[in-house]
Amino acid sequence: MKVQSIMSGLKKKHPGEKEYLQAVQEVLETIEDVYNQHPEFEQAKIVERLVEPDRIFKFRVTWVDDKKRVQNNIGYRVQFNSALGPYKGGLRFHPAVNESMLKFLGFEQIFKNSLTNLPLGGAKGGADFDPTGKSDAEIMRFCQAFMYELWRNIGADLDSPAGDVGVGGREIGYLYGAYKKLAREHSTGALTGKSYGWGGSLIRPEATGFGAMYYVERMVKQNKDKMEGKKIALSGFGNVAWGAATKAVELGAKVVAISGPDGVCEIKNGITKEMIDYMLEMRASNRNKVEDMAVKFPKDAKFTAKAKSWSVKCDIACPSAFQNEMSEEDANMLMKNGVKYVAEISNMGCQPGAIAAFQAKGIPFAPGKAVNAGGVATSGLEICQNAGHINWTAEEVDAKLHKIMNDIFDMCVEYGKEKGGKINYVKGANIAGFMRVAKAMMAQGII
Ligand code: 2IT
């Protein structure tokens, strides 16, 4: 495999699909050496097959808003790779959603799901629907209209979507209600992130953030350091940042920043339990403004319009909102302010220049596909419980999640060790994730 020639071929076939091409390039560059040690991969054209989705569904979603106006959106499901199991990955509702974005997310999902060691293929979907300012009734009608199209293409043994940006427990409830009516089947494994009591798993809402902090804790320990007292800057105030903040505080760290599309809230003395609870209300309001935190807690949180979390002094930076949210400039500012560790919780949260800048200065940097894998892993555990008609306790789920994250960390170290003992977590995650998929594809023949 020659990365350059594969990338130039892909650029010609998929012009303008920037995020997708960025995600593919990062993976290919890090697996190139290992790949070329396996001539059988080259012969079976594993990489050429892996970079193209199995199929993409693209559909019109028409619904009626509260003012009785007809609205049209575009919906998608990218079923990328099913070598390891039924397709699995979230649904994103955001105005910037397009095919390239969902292809990058679906591609990343293949490797992430592989890292969990569970039987999960890779997929992603969503719509260019903007939940900001929408009423609950509008959200419900949109979810129902979306499912009119999607329902035939999902199922417990086929493809099991979950939440992502703009899709949380409420949306999964509406989506599942519509799915059940259309499919005439109460097949809970067809969607994950359901509420507890009708098929949902305890700890699933917290899982992405909890898993991320378990990973970060290992990274810190790897450097003979400890979590207590560490200042953590998060971005966003959604489900992921909420779970991460909860676990960070439990581990003795201080969350000093959260952010939104409107700006950043600096929390000098560290986020409190009341503030973490308020994050849930902020998201449910659909206002999408982090300033609300500073209005509610004026003594503790200082809002700065337009600024990002990366301007706040911290020891650990965790992008947890959106792809490419951290630039090289942001990375340099963080390093100037003494950042010690960087762990993406959002998928591809850092621009390539930011990652290169951290790596050049020896700052441990871990990629989203490893750090945030606890979310989909717990979705996998939800499917297990659905199939067995059982409910595990919160402690049971949390213990399994913790073990999965420890195993992922160990794999990243094993495959990412470089000469001189330094660990390249990006390389480790990509190689470990890739090898499991490649072996399954080889075993399953040319198909
Ligand atoms: O990015 C992700 O891994 C998710 N949005 C969760 C996917 C899932 O199926 O739980």
Describe it for me?
- By secondary structure, the protein is an alpha/beta fold.
- It has 17 helices and 12 strands.
- The strands form 2 sheets. It has a 7-stranded mixed β-sheet.
- Helix 13 links the parallel strand 11 and strand 12.
- The chain starts with a helix and ends with a helix.
- The mean pLDDT is 97.
- The structure holds (2Z)-2-iminopentanedioic acid (2IT).
- The site of (2Z)-2-iminopentanedioic acid has 11 residues, from strand 3 and helix 15.
- (2Z)-2-iminopentanedioic acid binds next to strand 3 and helix 15.
List keywords for this structure.
12 strands; globular; 7-stranded mixed β-sheet; binds (2Z)-2-iminopentanedioic acid; 5-stranded mixed β-sheet; alpha/beta; 17 helices; 447 residues; 15% strand
Summarize the structure.
With 447 residues, this protein is an alpha/beta fold. The protein is built from 17 helices and 12 strands.
Question: Between the first and last Cα atoms, what is the distance in angstroms?
Answer: 20 Å
Rounded to the nearest angstrom, the radius of gyration is 21 Å
**What is the percent of helical residues?**
40-55%
Q: Beta-sheet strand percentage?
A: 5-15%
**Largest pleated sheet:** 7 strands, mixed
Question: Which segments are poorly predicted (pLDDT under 50) over 5 or more consecutive residues?
Answer: none
In total, the number of strands is 12
The pLDDT mean sits at 97
Shape: globular
Strand order within the widest beta sheet: 9-8-7-6-10-11-12
Bound molecules: (2Z)-2-iminopentanedioic acid
Structural class: alpha/beta
Order of helices and strands: HHHHEEEHEHEHHEHEEHHEEHEHEHHHH
Please tally the helical runs, counting DSSP H or I stretches of 4 or more residues: 17
